[in-house]
Amino acid sequence: DIQMTQSPSTLSASVGDRVTITCRASQSISSWLAWYQQKPGKAPKLLIYKASSLESGVPSRFSGSGSGTEFTLTISSLQPDDFATYYCQQYNSLPTFGQGTKVEIK
Amino acid sequence: QVQLQESGPGLVKPSETLSLTCTVSGGSISSYYWSWIRQPAGKGLEWIGRIYTSGSTNYNPSLKSRVTMSVDTSKNQFSLKLSSVTAADTAVYYCARDGMTTVTEGAFDIWGQGTMVTVSS
Fold it and tell me: Within an 8 Å CB–CB cutoff, is residue A14 touching chain B?
């Protein structure tokens, strides 16, 4: 199976900061990558699919890029509602998730 | 809009079979793939498997020997059975729409709220 590795595991940031999370795949997954946001006690929410397509209703401060084995999720200006854990997920083959990146208040 | 709701026992004894059902409301279950995903407390997400409304399935190789999924289109429901459970199967279990036949082409675009299942005697 394809392993997904996210970095960093934890990120401390302030409101208004530009935040970048990286996800690396153990082999090429083309652009078959999704990003999710999860808040405590809630189900994950789809943010980005096919590496860079914004899910309907998701604020435009979220963006995704990359292809092959290296991908990034960027939040252009961090808002109070964005403090959460973020997961990447590949669907080039049977789905696998990264271990998550927690974005916490600095 | 489409909503998903998991249901089933919150407590299962070791060595027994965990059984959960996901009910789809606000839309048809047909012509979509549906997945189960779980999350132990404080840990990451693990995909368990998916089922298409024809009944075809794919399972996580690490769980394949213990997993059975089924679908009942007349009730707009799909189900998960996980046999021979141990404490390691204690987790929040989510059902989700697997977007293989949607614009996302495979991302999980709709999720249930999740149900906590504890394996304990």
Answer: no
